[in-house]
Each structure stands twice: as C-alpha cells, then as structure tokens.
Amino acid sequence: MLSMSRDCWDSCGVEAGARGNNSPMPNYTELAESLAKSLELTTAAIAVRFAGVDDATPMHAGAAPAGCQFWERGATATFATTAADHALCSIGVHTHNLEPTPAQQKDLMDTLRVLGELTYVRADDVPQIPVLRERPAKVVYGPLADAEVAPDVVLLFVRADQTLVLSEATQQLEGRNAPAMGRPACAIVPQAVNTQGAALSLGCCGARAYLDVFTPDVAIFAIPGARLEAYAERIGKLAAANAMLGRFHASRRAAVEAGERPAIEESLAAFQAAG
User: Fold this and answer.
1) What is the domain extent for residue 107?
2) What stretches in the chain show pLDDT beneath 70?
3) Are 139 and 48 in contact (CB under 8 A)?
4) Does the residue 1 lie in any domain?
5) What is the pLDDT of residue 34?
6) For the whole model, what pTM was predicted?
7) Domain count along the chain
C-alpha cells in the first residue's frame, strides 16, 4: 500500500492499513483488551491510520501545541486531523509528510536552525529522521478498542517492565530487536509504517512537555497494524511466562537468602509444591 500514488492517497479514500484479501476483520476490541490485560496497560492502546479526503471520521476540534498530543487525546476519542490541525507543529507535519503551509515550512526551518545552534540536531542528523513515504490527506486517531478500520500503527504507552515483554515478542516475530529511538518522538509512526516493524521511542523533551501521560518512567512502543494479531498472541503468552518465571526466581532468591544452595531441579520442585 505504500507504493500508492499521492493522488490516490489524496482523493481515493483508500486506507493504508486496509486488508488486501478476503480475511475477516480482526476484533479490535478483543485485541485491545488482550493487550491491556497482558501488559497491564494504564493508558488505552491507540490506533493510528492514514486516510483519504473522503474519510467520514469526525474532525478534531480545537488546537494542539504538538502533533504527539493527538496520541493522548486518541486514547479516549476517535477523530481525524489534517495538516491544518498540526499548524503549531512543523516537526509533526514533516515526519508525517503532511502538506505544509508556507508558515509551517518557515517554522520548520526556524526550528531546525535553533536545534542546530544547540547542536541538538545537526545537519547530518536530519536525513536520518524517519518521514512517512506517502502523503496522507488525513491522520485518524482513536482507541484501538473502537477501531472499525484497520490501523496502520498501534501505539502503547509502556513502562520498562512492559517493554521487556514487547522486546521479546519483537525478537520472536521479527528476528531482531526493536530500535530504541529518540527525538523526535513522532518519528516512531513513520518508522513503524515504513519498515513494517515494531519500534520503541524514548520520546523527546517536547513530547514529555506536551503529554501528561508521558511521565519519566514511560516510553512509547509502536506495533505495525498488519502484525497486530500476531503481536497480541505472542505478548499474551510471553506475559504469562514472565509472570510465572518471576515468581519462580523470587522463590529461588528467598531460598538462597535463607542459606540454601538449591539446584534448579530442587528449586523447580519446591516452586511446584508451593503451587
């Protein structure tokens, strides 16, 4: 779907995450519940998708200081945005390849100039920032549980212990580790879409200022929509295994600290006996 022409994105209303076969649409409510239960999420999973101009999703109302704030709002309501809704976020317009206005383009150049003066983003760094390959007319955000159209990306706000399970799932499903990205936080969306692989974002100082949910112990994990079912299944099994193994290791630690020197077989027997 990424090979579609810009004209089709702008006018056909075809969803980038649409399923190209006759497979039944997944039950996104069940998938959201599975992820929330397995990972003990405190913020609902957020579905992000790219749409054409004919998409009928209600438009976002009000202003946002940065595009990443739509993630937080999308955890509780479904809405569509255009480049105009990103008017105050030239970086988000850039990473999501939205059509910039002259004012947004000037803002981007001014931002990059200041970041360059701080040596925060050097000239050589700019080409390394992921940018969505195709230009959508709209970006739709909403709770995964309410999704009626296949998402392109699912975003999770997670703690370090939750990313443990997610990283294990990525290794098993993709045969690699998810990249741990820094600034800008919004680049995690094009990263996941362009590569069709999971990604972890440690955020950026801007996102941490604009999002209340983005506390110091929280990161963002992105799952490509096409891999969502496989990830939910693996995450469920890995979370259960981690929980059991965590209890086993806690039991073994207690035995060692009590002066015992058990072999693994002995620890397993004691753990099983304890129920």
Assistant:
1) 6-274
2) 1-23
3) yes
4) no
5) 97
6) 0.85
7) 1
